[in-house]
Amino acid sequence: MESTGRDTVGLYEGILSTRAIRRYTDEAVPDEDLRDMLFAATRAPSGSNRQPFRFLVLTSGPVAQEAKRLIGTGARRFWEAKRAADGYDRGSGQMEDSPKSRLARTMQHYVDDFERVPVLVLPCYLGYRAPAPSDGASVYPACQNLLLAARALGYGGVLTGWHQSVETDLRALLAIPDQAVISATITLGRPVGHHGPVRRRPLPELVYGERWGEAPAWAVDPPGAGHTAAGPPGGT
To answer: Are residues 180 and 229 in the same domain?
Structure first.
């Protein structure tokens, strides 16, 4: 298939700059763009090329709005508990410009406005055997393709597990069969703000050579790479 010619960013740059986008304008996503994003998602690899992924795409209308309401209600409960348990309002969280405080504000806005996200996507894994730990390998590459295609076309998104606390009601609403596993909740839309360089742990902390914990000499971040201390301590 030929390129649509609407890509706004190269593949490598897109991989290095596709941030989690949780704030969206109210602009609707045209059907043509949804088609192109979902086409890219369905080009992803899967075990034995069985393509067991399925995507429920919800935009507007009463069913979509009820699905957003259900997930939004569960997301607000979950975030309220996590915000308290993880101390987002303590320590550096009390400093307005700290990364901790900024993340808390972004997350609060995201869950408070969940019902207004332009597009809600529920990637599902359609089981054909007893569940196995490797099943995710046949659906999450498709999710990443979706997010990268959104980035290429000027949109943004984020993958969460917000559906989990309301899954029973969500399944009933959307007639999801028992053999289909809801693997994630993805929201998409036109970003408020912008994408930019993604910050992660330094390469030597994440890439090892011939022995665990020992980085090869070539595992060096390129100049200008941004870093974050999020996640477990290096080497664990």
So the answer is: no
